[in-house]
Design goal:
Layout: H1 2-23, H2 30-34, H3 44-58, H4 90-110, H5 130-133, H6 137-148
Length: 152
């Protein structure tokens, strides 16, 4: 009983945080959504793309349920998922994120809370850090503040 309560609670928080990240794009011009705001070139739209990719991996590959979305091999990652390319529209990236939600939600609904997973890109003996995903809107908030308050 407590496992179902905990699972529902955590899943609810994940859904809330997903919506909060997309909310950061509300009302932004295309320029502001894509404008590099950090030394790495990260922008808000790219952050959505990155979180979608990370979520697809953690709720896909980790639980042997690969994402139906084409993803770059994790070993080949060069950080390009931290920004939106010229040929990617806001609508495409948001749609990718929402499709990732569907796949992740199916994994969450089908597996018990204590289902074992294997993170192939982490050295052993580490396992998946489930709490890391829920902290993702933090960078979105800070990046959005750079748009709204560029001079502090």
């Amino acid at each position: 009983m407590i496992d179902e309560f905990a699972k529902d609670n955590l899943h609810g928080r994940l859904r809330r945080d997903r919506e909060a990240l997309l909310w950061k794009l509300d009302g932004l011009s295309e320029y502001d959504a894509r404008r590099p705001l950090t030394a790495t070139g990260t922008n808000l739209l790219g952050l959505v793309k990155h979180v979608a990719t990370v979520e697809a991996r953690y709720f896909g590959e980790v639980f042997d349920r690969p994402s139906p979305e084409p993803l770059p091999r994790w070993r080949d990652s060069n950080g390009a998922d931290l920004w939106a390319t010229e040929d990617e529209t806001r609508e495409q990236i948001i749609a990718f994120y929402r499709r990732t939600w569907e796949h992740s939600d199916a994994t969450i609904n089908e597996l018990p809370l204590d289902a074992p997973g294997h993170v192939p890109w982490w050295p052993e003996p580490y396992g998946p850090r489930r709490s890391q995903r829920t902290k993702r809107p933090g960078p979105g908030s800070r990046t959005r503040m750079l748009v709204d308050y560029p001079h502090g």
